Structure prediction request, 417 residues.
Amino acid sequence: MKKRKSIFLLFIMLLLIINTLLLSGADYGKGGYVLSAPVQPTTGLKFYVDYSAISKYGSSPFINAAFNWNGDYKAYVSQVVVYPASRPAEHFVIEAGPMTYNHPGETYFYTINGDLIDSNTAMDSNLIYRCSIRINSNSSVFDNPNVSNQTYLIKTIRHEIGHVFLLKHPTLPYRSIMHSGAPTSSGSVSDEVTTMDRQNLISKWGQ
Amino acid sequence: MKKIGLCIMCMILMLVLVSCKTKKDSDMPSDIEVVRLQSERTYYENLEQIEDQATIIVKAVVSENLGQEVDTIYDYALQKELPTYGYTKWEVEVTKVYKGDVKVGDKLVLLQEYYIWTKSDGKKQLVTSSSVKPLNQGEEYLMILRYEEMLGGYSTVGDYQGIFAIPTDEVMAMIEDGKAEKSDFDIYYDDEPLNYLFPLYNEVIEKYFK
Prediction:
């Protein structure tokens, strides 16, 4: 009787794990980049942080945020060049500019013609040729009673780079950098790239 | 014969009056492509937090489109300006004040985070960072607003958490019965769950619409 109960519990646990894995699969885009796109996650993302961002926040938050994504898998950040160094031949721009308090940061996807694409459409199709990231230049947006201004800023940059890897906002409350909002020490919003984020990256781009 | 003519005249007049009451943005084709942007958002847990963040809380009528501001970055490979962040400025006229240093009749600048962009093929697209559809000219809304010094206007606190259409009796009844769904609120886009909206909607109804 006890053995049966244990088997039943194991079966339920297995189902729950499979369910979680399947659902987490919905948290990244089904699509990808145009084959001819010169910058892609599997050949290494190259970012150029321009004057607007460097003059506002310095270089370290951007470098710190970008390389936190790297690990033992195919998709990675290969280069972060900051102003005043010259731009790499091919790159995605990270800039800072005014936005309302509602938006700490934003990611843009473009076609080969330079047309903006709806983010969900972009992530689920193979139309992306270019990306760019904008961080709010109003630094008080990152003021929060629970975390330091700098932690929230770095979280935002990491989050936006996650979108460039085609990760979406998670549908389940597991701990992830890809949830919107200020990070918390115990809730679902992380300030670091988590195991689940890396798992999504592997599921999306390969080990 | 005269009576029929009078009736037709009355009907035409009524149609004109109804169409004048709320007007969509005239530059915007009804079948325009909508581009929703992937943005990091700030939301609030409850109405108290939203009200604390607000510079003013008012009911106001959307009176005039004051144009749009769009930022671009230059792409060296594509050799063209690519659009990034932008917003449309609306003039709104205050009809009731709940909080803040404004009075009835004041005209304010409301920033709505969307803009119209012309693509490489000449077609137009509506690019938006907001979950709220472009406002209707002539319509009244409850607005929980924060002043944006860097942008020179007001934005709604927490995006969709800071703007509410005046509910019809039908919507009020559905909310009270707990049967309201997002599709019942025409001012929001319906392709995301708006998890932070429903928990505070009842509070808003109690406080501002009863």
Notes: The domain at 32-205 of chain A is CATH 3.40.390.10 (Collagenase (Catalytic Domain)). The longest strand of chain A covers residues 130-136. Chain A has one domain: 32-205. Strands of chain A lie at 45-49, 77-82, 92-97, 105-110, 130-136.
